[in-house]
Amino acid sequence: MASIFSKIVSGEIPCHKVHENDKFLAFLDINPLAKGHTLVIPKVEIDYIFEIDDALLGEMMVFAKKVGLAIEKVIPCQRIGVTVIGLEVPHAHIHLIPIHQISDMNFAKPKISISHEELGEIAAKIRSQF
Ligand code: 5GP
Fold first, then answer.
1. pLDDT band at 1 (very low <50, low <70, confident <90, very high)
2. Using CA atoms, how far apart are residues 27 and 49, in angstroms rounded to an integer?
3. Is the CB of 49 within 6 Å of ligand 1?
4. What is the gyration radius of the CA atoms in the chain, in angstroms?
5. Does the annotation mark 16 as catalytic?
6. What integer is the mean pLDDT of 61-89?
7. Superfamily per CATH, domain 4-127
8. Pocket test for ligand 1, best of 88, 95, 96, 112 (most atoms within 8 A of CB)
9. What are the pLDDT digits (tens) for 15-40?
10. What local confidence, expressed as pLDDT, does residue 102 receive?
11. Range 91-98 average pLDDT
12. In 3D, which of 21, 31, 128, 38 has the Cα closest to residue 83?
């Protein structure tokens, strides 16, 4: 069965898209730790990040870097935290999270509450940087 992220890639499930190319897609996390929290995924469905072949993984990091730099321009933060967890969705993804302090990367704390309207506005601001 296709992962929820493959359904986002195919358009079956909507997302707040931030950036894409032929191989990767970046979209806002629906349950973010911070405003601007973005997920970067390969369009091809691969569960574990370390199952991605070296060349594609390298390209994915370069793509994530571009997205992170765009987020930084529109979301006030000290820098963009980068992490991979993958315990919930079996489709490799990099989390890009605008942070001010180490505790902003704590996935065990409650997520922020944010409307779809605001997510849409944030995604549009980040997209405007490309
Ligand atoms: P992980 O697999 O890294 O533990 O967490 C998966 C992340 O994907 C979570 O931060 C969760 O909020 C996000 N997520 C799960 N389902 C969806 C979805 O349908 N749309 C979006 N945009 N994000 C999702």
1. confident
2. 17
3. no
4. 14
5. no
6. 98
7. HIT-like (3.30.428.10)
8. 88
9. 999 999 999 999 999 999 999 999 99
10. 96
11. 98
12. 38
Is 87 a pocket residue for ligand 1 (Cβ < 6 Å)? yes
The residues with which 79 forms a beta bridge, in sequence order, are 99
Question: Which residue puts its alpha carbon closest to atom 13 of ligand 1?
Answer: 29
- Own/partner pairs for 60-64, CB < 8 Å, 24+ apart? 60/23, 60/24, 60/94, 61/94, 63/19, 63/21, 63/23, 63/24, 63/26, 64/26, 64/40, 64/94, 64/96
Q: 88: Cβ below 6 Å to ligand 1? A: yes
Predicted pLDDT of residue 3? 93
Backbone angles phi, psi at 39, to 5 degrees: -110, 135
pLDDT for 9 beyond 90? yes
| Cα distance between residue 27 and residue 37, in whole Å | 9
Residue 29 alpha carbon to ligand 1 centre in Å? 6
The two three-digit tokens of residue 51, written as one number: 């199952």
Helix 116-127, helix 54-74: angle, nearest 10 = 100
For 5, the enclosing helix (H) or strand (E) is helix 4-10
pLDDT (average), residues 36-50:
98
